[in-house]
Specification:
With 108 residues, the protein is α+β, with helices and mostly antiparallel strands. Strand 4 and strand 5 form a beta hairpin. It is globular, with a radius of gyration of 15 Å.
Amino acid sequence: MSETRKPRLVGINHNMMQVSDPHEDRRRHFGLVVDDRSSVRARVEAAGGKLVPGPFLDFLDPWGNRVEVVEYANIQFTKAPHVLRAMGFDLDKNESARRELAEKGMMP
């Protein structure tokens, strides 16, 4: 595991930690945005974490909260270029994320 670079946190995408209906508790989660999530699955498994089956890269933290890990390039969450530079990142959006941002009039 030490041969792969750790993903760096870019930000928190969303936070849904409280739900009104206890039957919807499985929907409680928060999203972490990272620069590169390619090693996250192996790191979660190596730490004994429980991956959640499904189309996303989600796992349960020790308290049962669902954590969704997304890559900055793939989502609408955006930081200003000068903020990314100050954080030491050189990141861009993929075509799908750029299209979603443009459709909402949010493309820089």
